[in-house]
Specification:
Two copies of one chain form a homodimer. With 290 residues, chain A is an all-alpha fold. In chain A, 74% of the residues lie in helices and 1% in strands. Chain A has helices at 2-19, 26-36, 43-54, 63-81, 97-101, 103-127, 131-144, 149-159, 166-191, 196-223, 226-229, 235-238, 244-272, 277-286, and strands spanning 90-91, 94-95. Chain A is globular, with a radius of gyration of 18 Å.
């Protein structure tokens, strides 16, 4: 299984490399490449390919969309790190984009990555006019937008320093993190030609995986170290961020996390059968220590 | 002719209204709507529809793309006005987005408008799977991206306070302004089902119109007043921007502008025949005083 994931990751990195080859203006492309090749886990594209593969689809069809979703994830990190937003200096053990290239170029590099994601998809759609591509395109746009990831980031920023309840925190998690995970899973399913009933079940699964991923992030922000994590720990507390942990404490969070994980594993077996690559990938992501 | 343009503009505004109806988080949508409905000329969508109409296409097919290109234009203004970029306080006689909603929300509102443009297109492509839609989508992505508008803005920022030559200034104009104008024209042609030879001629025309539009902007920045323009004049000089005027002086700029305009009018007649809506629209845009 590990070998398959390595092969996926190689394909994703080659596709990214192909689609942001340096051009003029050089500094803009350098800034885009700096963050895309800063050691990301490629979790979202890996999920997309694992679902497509587990449903018997051809993973090569995922590649343009895999590169696109990774670029969208990367642009969101660049913009989130800006002084006007979370004001973070480090990300994945390296200086954040604006710390290296300045704020103006970081904003533009983010914009350019978001736009480039759709350039890649447009080219693919012109070359292969099929409904699976259209639905994959649509899932991505909705998940990344004002009613998805961007809306979650806005709600998160607006809630800083405020007392918010469980419903609001779940709203933020669902939009900010789960939306793009769900999209990754749904896109893999659409590209494998899955029907609407299967996609509905996969959407529900994706929401749970996204929530688990975010809770794991929040736990690690407290229990890990800067050396392992590659970014300062306790940043949520410093920024007065509302997280699952800050709201419910570590004990309940750990307990809920275990229940959620068990549900996820069971649902994956139900949908995809035993011994599939998605199961293996999820176990790696949920048990990660960075 | 004026009545036709009014009808176009009404259709564009309705399409925009439909596609950014207020949702949660309210402030994000308010910020998006603030700039989209701040009195823009709708020049790019009007060009798209005028070309489609002049080629015998159905302008209704343009509407999702018309809303999309206007949103992309609007997001670029929001981000360009940010303190880290051009640092402008006024735009179209109103406070700029970040002056009203703060920097974080202005960055997110811009991101959300760029993303929403592609949400609209994705929905349209799912509903109407045809090659004209795909090409219109592709023209837009390339023109708006790192090798188009964003690249032009990056080059513009990098050139501030530097001595640059005519070639470089034309590169910036071509990318920053012409690219999106060209795309508007090409999209209208693709949506009307035009062939590749016609589109090539329209691309060349679009580049000229875009350049003329930008030169007119630079002239008005010097010769107009804040009352008429709705934003401070002489901002290029203050920001040490390289413009056609700063490089060649007002006399040569005016002369070149006249020659360029004459070429544009003649080429429109050649491609689209006499007495068409595009000719009328171009004359209004090129002779504008704000």
């Amino acid at each position: 299984m590990e070998k398959i994931l390595l092969e996926y990751r190689n394909l994703i990195n080659k596709e990214l490399e192909k689609n942001i080859a340096p051009e003029k203006p050089e500094i803009l492309f350098e800034a885009m490449r700096y963050s895309v090749f800063a050691g990301g886990k490629r979790a979202r594209p890996l999920f997309m390919m694992a679902v497509c593969d587990s449903l018997g689809g051809n993973i090569k069809q995922c590649l343009p969309f895999a590169a696109a979703i990774e670029m969208i994830h990367t642009y969101s990190l660049i913009h989130d790190d800006l002084p006007a937003m979370d004001n973070d200096d480090y990300r994945r053990g390296k200086l954040t984009n604006h710390k290296v290239y300045g704020e103006a170029m970081a904003i533009l590099a983010g914009d350019a990555l978001l736009n480039r994601a759709f350039e890649i998809i447009a080219e693919e759609c012109c070359n292969n006019l099929n409904i699976g591509n259209m639905y994959a395109f649509r899932y991505l746009t909705v998940a990344a937008g004002a009613c998805g990831m961007i809306g979650g980031q806005a709600a998160d920023i607006l809630s800083e320093g405020q007392d918010i309840d469980m419903r609001e925190i779940l709203f933020i998690h669902k939009k900010k993190t789960s939306a793009l995970f769900c999209a990754a899973l749904n896109m893999g399913a659409a590209l494998a030609g899955a029907g609407i009933d299967k996609i509905k079940r996969i959407t529900a699964l994706g929401e749970k995986i996204g929530l688990a991923f975010q809770i794991r992030d929040d736990i690690l922000d407290i229990t890990s170290t800067q050396e392992i994590l590659g970014k300062p720990v306790n940043s949520d507390m410093r920024n007065k961020k509302n997280t699952y942990v800050s709201l419910f404490g570590m004990e309940k969070t750990n307990g809920d996390y275990k229940i959620l994980s068990a549900q996820i594993y069971s649902e994956i077996k139900n949908i995809f059968g035993d011994n599939n690559i998605l199961y293996y990938l999820v176990s790696k992501i949920l048990d990660r220590d960075k």
